[in-house]
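P.,

For your records, the input lines for the assembly:
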Amino acid sequence: MMRITLIAVGLLLAVLLPLAIPWLNFVFIMAVAQGFAALGVVLLLRAGMISIGHAVFLASGAYVTAFLLRQTGITDLGLILLVATLGSGLFGFLIGMFMVRYRAIFFAMLNMAVSMVVFALLAKLYHLTGGTDGVRVATPTVLGAVLDRTVFDSLLLYISLALLVAVGWLVHRYLSSPLGKALEAVHTNEVRLEYLGVSAWGVLLYAYTISAALAGLGGALAAIAVGHVVPELAYWTHSGQLVLIAVLGGIGGVVGPFIGALFFEIVRVVAAGYAAYTWNMIVGLALLGVIFFLPNGLYGLVQRLLKRGGGS
Amino acid sequence: MLDLLALLIVDGLADAALIFFVAVGLTLVFSVLRILNVAHGSFYSIGAYVAVSIGMWVVSAGWHPYLTFPALFLSAALVAVALGPFIERYFLRWTYGKSEALQILVTFALFLVFEDLQKLVFGVQAHYEDTPLQLLGVSDIGGIFYLNYQFLLIAMAAVTVILLRLLIRRTMIGKFIVAVVADREIAQTMGINTTRVFVIAFTVGVFLAALGGALASPTSGVAPGLGAEALVLAFAVAAIGGLGQIEGAALAAVIVGLSRAAAIHFAPDFEAVVPYLVMLVVLLIRPYGLFGTVQARRI
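C-alpha cells returned:
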C-alpha cells in the first residue's frame, strides 16, 4: 500500500512540476526513456548477467523510429512506438539466441562486441544511417493530429508516464511469475534449475527478448524527445551508463531503474549548466557510494527511510 | 604486390604491438585478481597524457631530445606507482569475492571518474608531442618508407612478451603469481602473501597499460575518448586470446593488428568493425578464446 501511494505521489509530481518548471518536461521524458532501457538491464542483472552492450537495443529502437518517420509514411506516435518496441524485441531475440549460451564475463564482452559492431556500422553506412551526423527525427502525429512542438512535448510526457505505469505493471507481473522467478534461480544455481526440468536457455532468452524490447521502447521515446539519433547511442559507454542507472536505482523491483534514471538525468542537466566535464565524475562517485554503502540502491534507501518513519 | 604485403605486415605488427601492451595488462589483472578492469582504458589514456606532458617539458626545457625516450617509460612508471597500489587497496580489495557484475561496475565508476579528471587536468583539446617519432626518422626499404618508430614498437612488444614470460616462469614472484592464479586459498595456506601478489600484479598491469598509452602518444596524439577506444580493443584482444593468457594475448594482438591493417588498405570503412568480428567468430567457435581453458560450472 505504502509503495502504491509512493508511486502515485511520484507520478503526480512528474505531471505537475513541469507545469511550473518547463525544462523538467524534457528531463522527465528522458528519465522514463532511460529507465525503460535500464529496466531491461535489470531483468538480466537479476539472473546475474551483466550486459555491457544493451544500448544497442536502445539504438535499434531509436533508429527504427527515425526510419519510419523519414522513409515511410507512418507518422502515428502509437504505431511508431509499437513497431520500434517489437522490432527491437525481434532483434534481441535473434541476438539472444547466441548470447544466452554464454555466462559472466563472456556474456558481458560478447554483448559489447555486438554493440560495437552495430556502432561502427551505424557510423560508416552513410547512405543508410547518415553516418556520424545521425538522422533527424520529425515530430510524429498523435491520432492523425499534427501538434505544435510544445503541446506535443507535454503530451509525450503524459504518454511516457502512462506507458511507465502500464509497462511497469506488466514487467512487475512477469517478475512475480514463475518465469520471472526462474531468473533468480539461474543466478543462484543454474544446474539445479535444469535438474528441475526448467530450461535455463529458454528462461534467459525470454528475459533477453523482453529486455531488448524495453530498451527499444526507451530508445524510441528518447529519439522522439531529442529529435535526433546518432551512432553514439550504441557506444559501449552508453551501455555502461544503463547498467549504472540500474544499479544506482536498485535492481530489487520495477521502480528502482526509474529512480536511478531520474537521478542520472538531473545530475547531467545540472552539471552541464554549472560545472561542465564533471557529470561523469559525479555519477561515477554516486555509483561508488551506492555500491559501497547502499546495496539495494536509491530505491532501497527510500524504502528504509519510509520504514523508519512509519515505525517510530 | 610484395611491397604491399610488407607494408601491411609492418603496419599490422606495429598496431598489434600497441594493442598488445593494453591487452596483456588487462589479461594479467584478470588472471590474478579475477576482475575485468574497465578502468584499464583510463590507465592507457592517463599514460598517454603524462607522456605527452613530460615530453613537452623535456623539449621546452632544452634538454637533449633523446631524453624523450626514457621519458616515455618514466611516465608509465609514474602512473603505475601513483595509481596502482592506491586503486587496488582502496577500491578493488573490497570487491574480492563479490559478484562479477559488481566488480565490473566498480571499475566502470572509476573509469567515469578518471574520464572527467583527465578533462579537468589536461583540458578537452587534443595534444601532440611526436619528438621520439621524428628523431628516429624513416627508412627506405624497397621504395617504401617505413617509420623507424614502428620497428621500435614491434621490438618493444617482443621484448615485453619475453620479459613477462621470464618474470612468470623464472622469478619467485612469478611463481607466487602462478600459484595464486591456480588456487588462491591453497596459495595462502602455503604462506604466500596473496595481498602483496595482488598489489604487484595490478601495478604491473597498470604499468603495461600506461606504457601502451605512452608509446602510442607520439603516433596518435592524445584526446578525450582515447581510453574508451583502447579499452574495447583490449577487451576484444584479451577475449580472443583467452582471458588470462599472456601468449594468447600476443597472438590475438597480431591477428587483430594484421586484419585491421588489411581492412585499412582494402576496405577502410570497415576497419573499426574488424576486431569485433574476429572476436565474435572466435568466441562462437571457441567460447573461452584461442588459448582459454574450459572452467567447470559449479553445482
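Two observations worth noting. Chain A touches chain B through 46 residues (CB under 8 Å). The longest strand of chain A covers residues 135-136.

Regards
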